[in-house]
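Quick one: structure tokens for this chain, please?
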Amino acid sequence: MPAVPPSLEAPPRASAGAARPHHDAAGDGRRGAERSARSPRRGGVRGRRYRPQHRRRLPWPLRLVRALAVGAVLLVLVYLAAVAVEVEAAARRQSERPADAAVVMGAAQYDGVPSGALAGRLDRAAELYAAGQVDRIIVTGGNQPGDRTTEGMTGFVYLRELGVPEEALLVENTSTNTWEQLLATKLILDEHDIDRVILVSDPYHNRRLLGTAAELGIDADVAAADSGSSWRDLGRETFGVAAGQLIGFRRLAQL
């Protein structure tokens, strides 16, 4: 029988006790995960590229409403910024022209003793009188429940002690806010034929005073007391002046 070449011989069978190749299940799992990561799926179908969904545009009426709302907010912010500039500029304003009288805006008093704010305003009015810039001084302001005197009478006594003659002083003692003070002052001006006045208050108050005086038909300028204005004061006056210019200072005082 001819010999069979070695290359054609059948491979030897593995015996029952021979070792079999080891199957790495963990490695197969990792390789499967890597293939899955490299092959993105969408909707459970492997190999399909993912395309992001485009957001649906709002209907045009809603887009119009949104645009109008944004425009309104921007308009309000621009308006408030413009008013803030006016308030800050007016706070630095000091009248140098002569006038018939100075009008001191009322502030707190404590049983006849003026507060620091009121004393500063009275001192400024006394300076205007001593410099010959005004011939008279009108003091304004009523009282709070329980007070035994008024802001107006407190100012009258204070100025008289500073040397301002009594005949140069006029008193208004029923008002409780800026509008009422200037409204009562208008009656005094008409009664005494006083044409032009200088309003004396704290610096931050100047723009509101000028707007209120203009609404009442009072020819007025301002000369602020020697006191500072905090950002809080200027901010509060900005909102007050902005509202007063829109609805009127009389309505603002009634709110």
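The CA atoms of residues 100 and 194 lie 6 Å apart.
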